[in-house]
Every structure is written in C-alpha cells, then in structure tokens.
Design brief:
16 strands, five-stranded parallel beta sheet, alpha/beta
Length: 164
C-alpha cells in the first residue's frame, strides 16, 4: 500500500486506480462529504473537520463549502488566515501549499495531477503529480486555474480567469 502512495506523492508515474489508493481516498472523501453537508451555523464543526482533513491548517482559515478535493484535503498545507470562497477545487493527489493571508476567489482550481504524453500510457490510466506552491499574501481571482508544478510567489495577484 505505501508503495503506491509513495509513487503518487513523489512525481513518479503510477496507476491511480490501485485498490489500496482507492480505499484510502474514499476514506478521505467521507470527511469531505461531512464538511460539505454542514449547516452555516456549524462553524466549530467545520473547523474541526478541516483539522482532521488537511495535512496542515493554520489559525483563522475559512473554507466556504462546497469544497471539492480528490483526497479531501489530505495533501493540503494551509498557513494562517487563508480564505477560500465557494467551489474551490483542489486536485490534491500530492501536496498543495498555500501561504498565510492568501485569498482564493470562487471557482478556483488547484491541480497537481498530470497525465503522460505517451498515448499508450494514458490508455492504461497512468498519471503523475507535481506539487503546487502558493506564497504568502496572494490573491487568486475568481476562476483562476493553477496547473501542476506551478509556484506563485509572495504578494502576487492573479487576475480572474487566468491560467497559471
């Protein structure tokens, strides 16, 4: 089991349909489901679930449901005072780092998953993942897409609809 997971987070090519990975991923998705079903007044419950779901989450972070994440946030590392508006999609098949005081607009996608250029490998369902790093005090406007392997520096503003 660790071997498939180690490949997944290391940038190596692997099969995401591996049974051990799927079982682990479904467990993460259960908590994500619970988070997305919380009621607006259940702020304490939301915060507790985020602490359980994410690899790291700093103080005073707020994630507006619904959150969409392949691994339920398991590979997400958030600093302090991070705000994410509705419909954040985190393809968190490997690590996503978000620095302190970062604001994320609605309908933003942070993607770590990539697929091989060789068609015969794509036919078999292989993929590989590259981490995403977002610095401190960054603002990602509505609808921004961040692709695998990208680093966004501190104090950056990425305009709405941009692909980085």
């Amino acid at each position: 089991m660790r071997m498939a997971h180690d490949k997944m987070i290391s940038g190596e090519i692997y099969l995401p349909s591996d049974d051990s990975l799927m079982a682990e991923q479904f467990d993460c998705m259960e908590k994500l489901y619970d988070f997305n079903m919380t009621r607006p007044h259940e702020q304490e419950k939301r915060q507790q679930l985020l602490k359980e779901m994410f690899a790291e989450i700093g103080e005073d972070c707020y994630i507006e449901p619904p959150l969409h994440a392949n691994w339920g946030g398991r590979h997400m590392h958030l600093g302090r005072n991070v705000y994410a508006n509705f419909n954040l999609t985190a393809v968190d098949d490997c690590d996503i780092y978000i620095g302190d005081y970062t604001m994320i607009g609605p309908n933003v996608t942070l993607a770590t998953a990539n697929h091989p250029l060789a068609p015969e490998l794509r036919e078999q369902g292989y993929q590989y993942n590259l981490p995403v790093r977002i610095g401190k005090n960054v603002w990602l406007g509505a609808g921004v897409i961040v692709v695998p392997g990208v680093t966004i520096g501190d104090n950056s503003v990425i305009g709405a609809g941009s692909v980085v």
